[in-house]
Every structure is written in structure tokens, then in C-alpha cells.
Write a structure and sequence with these properties.
- This protein has one helix and five strands, in the order ββββαβ.
- By secondary structure, the protein is α+β, with helices and mostly antiparallel strands.
- It has a domain of 69 residues: Nuclear Transport Factor 2, Chain: A (Roll), CATH 3.10.450.700.
């Protein structure tokens, strides 16, 4: 993979999730001081008269907030699954690595977690 160095920041790892008309990118980047952070980008294709453009929204997540972010995300997803929609079989939405999730990295790919476990892990 060719190194991407916008503004002197190396991209270390990237995962892409296609979700309907949106695509989400999860990118690990490094700072000039050899620290790491995560960017989460939502990209939506918008059509115009003369073609199309991409509308992007980006979140920067720093290491000191990883655990708080994951805890809030887990709690929110579990609330929807267990309290608001307990009768929905969410496993019907599992589409493991069939063009819905692509991983590109200069390191080995993320190990798959047990899909019966609804907790996200940051290892």
C-alpha cells in the first residue's frame, strides 16, 4: 500500500464500510510526534447538474477518548437492540467481508470477533 501523507500525517490503517448510499472510513493516522489518532469519515455521494460530488463529515478521536467513546457506542447500540428492538434478529444484517467491509493496512487485518458478542473491542 502506498503511504498517504497529507499534512505530514501517515495513514497507518484503514477500514471501509459501505452502508447503502453512505460509506464510512475508519482511519488510524500518526502525528509528527509518533502519536496515533482515529478519524471516522462519513461520505455521501451527491449528484449535481454537471456530475457529482462527495459530502464528507469527519470525527477525530484521540487515544484518551477511545474507551469513553466505545463505552458510549456500546451502551447506545445495546439499548436499541435490547430495549427498543428486542425482537429484531440483528444477525440478519451480518455480511462478513463481502464488499461491505474492506480492510487495507500496512499491518495484519483485524481478527474477527465472535458475532454473538455485541460488545466492541479496542485491542
Amino acid at each position: 500500500m502506498e503511504e498517504n501523507k497529507p499534512n505530514g500525517r501517515d495513514e497507518i490503517f484503514s477500514a471501509k464500510v459501505k452502508a447503502g448510499k453512505r460509506t464510512y472510513f475508519f482511519d488510524v493516522k500518526s502525528t509528527r510526534g509518533n502519536d496515533y489518532y482515529l478519524t471516522i469519515t462519513e461520505s455521501k455521494k451527491r449528484f449535481k447538474e454537471d456530475g457529482f460530488t462527495y459530502e464528507k463529515h469527519k470525527i477525530f478521536l484521540y487515544k484518551e477518548d477511545f474507551n469513553k467513546f466505545l463505552e458510549a457506542l456500546n451502551n447506545t447500540v445495546n439499548h436499541v437492540k435490547n430495549q427498543l428492538m428486542p425482537d429484531v434478529d440483528f444477525s440478519q444484517f451480518d455480511q462478513i467481508h463481502d464488499n461491505h467491509e474492506e480492510v487495507h493496512a500496512s499491518e495484519p487485518a483485524i481478527k474477527e470477533n465472535n458475532h454473538n458478542n455485541s460488545e466492541l473491542k479496542w485491542d
